[in-house]
Each structure stands twice: as C-alpha cells, then as structure tokens.
Specification:
Subcellular location: Periplasm
Number of helices: 5
Structural class: alpha+beta
Helix content: 10-25%
Number of strands: 12
Order of helices and strands: HHEEEEEEHHHEEEEEE
CATH topology: outer membrane lipoprotein receptor (LolB), chain A
CATH architecture: Clam
Strand content: over 45%
Protein name: Outer-membrane lipoprotein carrier protein
GO biological process, one term: lipoprotein transport
Keywords: Chaperone, Lipoprotein, Periplasm, Protein transport, Signal, Transport
Pfam family, one: LolA
Radius of gyration: 16 Å
Largest sheet: 12 strands, mixed
Amino acid sequence: MTRTLISAAALVFAGVAAFAQADATADLKQFLSSTHSLQAQFNQTVTGKGKAQNSSGTVAIAIPGKFHWEYQKPYQQLIVGDGQQVWLYDPDLKQATVKDMGNALESSPAAILAGDSGWERNYTLRTLADKDNMTWLEATPKRADSSFEVVRLGFANGQIAQMDLLDKFGQTTQIRFSQITRNPKLDASLFHFTPPKDADVVHQ
C-alpha cells in the first residue's frame, strides 16, 4: 500500500428503525453523551478500483476535537489533532503536513468521532437495518464540500464498533475497532505534535 493511499483514507480523521430494530440514532446520542475519551485498536480496509488495501494501528480520542491516530502496519504514519490543527507525519519520508482543524473536521475518521455533538445539525441521519449483530446509522453530510459522501456507524451494545466511509472517488474505507476502552485517562502529550528538526513541513 502506498503512503498516498493511506493518507487519502485517513485525511481525504471524532453516529428510526422498524419495530423490531434498535434505534441507532439513540445509540449515537448515548455514545456521545457518555463518552469523553476513547482508546482502541483498529483494522482498516480500503476498497475501490484494484486490490483491497489493509492497515492497522491504534487510536486515542479526547472529545471534543483531539485525537491521536497511529498507523503501525504496513507503514508507520501518525495523525494528531490538537483541537486547533491536524498534523500528518510520515517518519519514512520525514514529512509533516499541517492544516487547520476547521479544514480537516470531515476529512478524517478520527476527526469525525472526536467532533462535537452536532450530528443532527451537520448530517442527515437515517437508521439502517441491523447487520452483523450491530445497529447501523447512516449519516449523509449536509455540506457539499465534505470529503465523504456517506458515513455509516455500527454500534454493538451501545459501543462504536465499526465505521464505513464512502468518499467522492468511489472508495470505501471500513474501520473495525477492537479492545475499546471508554473514558480512559489519556496523557495530554498524545494530542500535541512537534515536527522533528529534520522534517519538511507543508502547510495546507
């Protein structure tokens, strides 16, 4: 997998059924109201034209607006949101890219999860049929310039378990979360990034 494709998947990154189905909108509201921080592992698969591309790593989120999204395989890459800016750092290329949080809010899975609770203001929400033992919510961005066409969130026992994101290039990014810890005490240093002295810094 190329680094460009990994970056595109992450920075193109804080979610009423029929009678028998659970209410995924309620799951989203409950999750957001009861979650102040989150730590998990993730497995990501990007599909589109050509071979599926897999990656994995760890994520830490502090709501609102702070996240630490680290790819560990197949290439190392770090994405850090400090509440004001988002940094993308590639240690192999020794390159750091930085952009304002406002310009990245809907371009990263982590940024979507770490965002404020204004989902109903920013998205059109629709509950989908239950699937794979999860309740599903589909969120369509109201902003025409959103990086994603559709975001689907899967909840298991009120916990975020999966995100599916369809972008404007026809690619689908599926992210499965595991070993989730809700509301852990996170070190503030996770959400700060200072580029190494030998890194090229690109401002967007």
